[in-house]
Amino acid sequence: xxxxxxITINKRAGCGTIHLTISDGSSTGKPIISVxxxxxxxxxxSQLTTIGYALxxxxxxxxxxxxxxAAIESIPCPQSLEATKGPTSCxxxxxxxxxxxxxxxx
Length: 106
Prior knowledge:
Blueprint: E1 6-13, E2 16-23, E3 32-37, H1 42-60, H2 65-72, H3 78-83, H4 90-102
Antiparallel strand pairs: 1-2, 2-3
Helix pairs in contact: 2-4
């Protein structure tokens, strides 16, 4: 049995740190993106889990990582805009992680 190759990348957003794990799905043939929040409350973690499931489903239905990153880039969130000069939302932070991973920067 082949085990999945995965990488976890962390990025700070307005509500806390985002932990994104990309698994290539080599054991199942289906890639997986898992997203969790650091010490954030349950609302952020619920939203991040939902985003991870949606991204995984889109990948498994044929979307590319580039398409997914472009779709969630620059979505604004008041908490992120007030707290940092970095990502504009959790979605934007995830987009930055995916783009960085594609360019080999993360």
